[in-house]
Amino acid sequence: MQVVLHKADFEAAVTAARAGDKSQFLPVASMYTTGTGVGKDDVKALFWTQKAEKAGVTAANYNLALMHLQGGAVEQDFQKSYDYLNAYIKAGNSSPKSAELGESLTHLIHEPNFCNG
Q1: What is the rounded radius of gyration, in angstroms, for the C-alpha atoms of the chain?
Q2: Which pTM value belongs to this model?
Q3: Domain boundaries along the sequence of the chain
């Protein structure tokens, strides 16, 4: 029964997003990322996250930072990840989680063997 509710939530969100409701771009991306109400699809998650970023949804920058950090639908790129994170922070979003990610990215960019031991 809960799957039906998730599918209905997805359908409502994607219909609104396709109609241009930018407040639904990231929820749709998240649903594609997790497979909630729809099949998991990292490429579609990337599409909607990029669309949100272009529409000025600053939280999309954090999500893009994570996507570039992890690789998958996009090529792993620590510098791009850092740049998206920096845009997120400069827009007034700061948290211990984003600070920790920034510190890790700084190490990854400047110390390539940081993860290897």
Answers
A1: 16
A2: 0.82
A3: 1-56, 58-117
